[in-house]
Amino acid sequence: MTTQNELFEKSKDLVPGGVHSPVRSFKGLHTTPRFIKKAHGAFIEDVDGKDYIDFCMSFGPLVLGHKDSDVEKSLVDALSRGWSYGTCEPYSLDLASFLLSKIDFVDQIRFVNSGTEAVMTALRLARGATKKDKIIKFNGCYHGHTDSMLIKAGSGLAGTSEASSAGVPEGISKDTLILELGNTEEVIQCFKDHPGEIAAIIIEPLPANNGLLIQEKSFLEFLRKITKDNDALLIFDEVISGFRVAFGGMAELTGITPDIVTYGKIIGGGLPVGAIAAKKEIMDNLAPVGSVYQAGTLSANPLAMVGGLETLKKMTPKAYEEINANTTKIINVFNKWLKEYNDGEFSHYSLTSHSSLFWIVAAEGVNCMDKIPADITEKFNPLFETLLEKGIYLSPNAYEVGFVSLAHNDEVIGELEKRLWN
Ligand code: PMP
């Protein structure tokens, strides 16, 4: 078989930077991206035959682990019935009714193909429902790559808008107001500065795209209240946290209910799905009932619906207990190793975690962008390379979190210990 290095050379010719998503790039590292030929449970194996304990898990969707046998069986069955109909089918109803029976603050759901699409629709829906244009977004929250969400501002620029990607027109960025996570004063001031103009606040209730910037519950409660008081909507982007921290995501865990929620990742069990859910009064704004347009050739794809349902059926309360307990064990193992390795080479690191997510960071108490150490990437890269060499795969980026799955069981944890201290 062609080697990894040969594949990467070929890939660089055919695909920008050799990758189909920049988070897969090994930019700044002394090695090239691994080309994975197969995966099973907690393991991925590259084309050179080396295997890794995977803590990237496709950036979150694979909560059961790779190639879960029940999901596989349901997909094989689904394949035999054809894989896209472009009309109504029963499979999305099975998934919708299963979800809606368990998440009681929403009445309806619409399936799309990615988290980005879900957020794009949620924003249009919020604007259409409120007839207002501006959206408050927090610095450090990622909501996919729709133009209006690719905006950031340093703390000195709070309340103003500056695009963080080329190609985002000023006309679009001006309606996204960037504020600092956890700063209630800024939110109050922003509503004063833009009376009657703010359609919604969007937040990752567990910000997990610039490390893990865990927020106080009181901040989410404050956002709930200020949006209500100002006739604005609260959007929880639960693309990562939905079905991970609890079945109903952070909304269930905190008891704080948003007006609109977006899902992705686990909802498709590793197949491309995103979703928007809300009360019927809000969802009625979507076409064909209302005038907010949204569509998709492959939306509610039958394979993805079946893969999602089979995955979610396994996320019982017991499964959450198990995955969280295993994460605690994994964190203890990593923390011990970080202290001991090579006479303390990595001893300044600690792991921040929430449920089955963790982040390796070289500082304590990081909960907003300002507190992330400036040299985080330079410090992370040697750690990443050491772990890779030992057959342990993290996302190749200091800002990404690690994901634990139900397949990361005691046996895998034993193997992790063996590999770390080897
Ligand atoms: N919102 C959040 C909170 C996310 O974590 C992501 C993806 N990491 C997205 C939106 C975009 O999802 P997708 O990559 O499926 O477009």
Automatic annotation (TrEMBL):
Pathways involved: Porphyrin-containing compound metabolism; protoporphyrin-IX biosynthesis; 5-aminolevulinate from L-glutamyl-tRNA(Glu): step 2/2
Where, per the database record, does this protein carry N6-(pyridoxal phosphate)lysine? 265
Q: How is this protein annotated for GO cellular component? A: cytoplasm
Which GO-annotated molecular functions does the record name?
Answer: glutamate-1-semialdehyde 2,1-aminomutase activity; pyridoxal phosphate binding; transaminase activity
Entry-linked HAMAP family: HemL_aminotrans_3
Q: How does it assemble?
A: Homodimer.
| The protein's name | Glutamate-1-semialdehyde 2,1-aminomutase
State the organism of origin: Halobacteriovorax marinus (strain ATCC BAA-682 / DSM 15412 / SJ) (Bacteriovorax marinus)
Query: Which lineage do the record's taxonomy fields give for this organism?
Result: Bacteria, Pseudomonadati, Bdellovibrionota, Bacteriovoracia, Bacteriovoracales
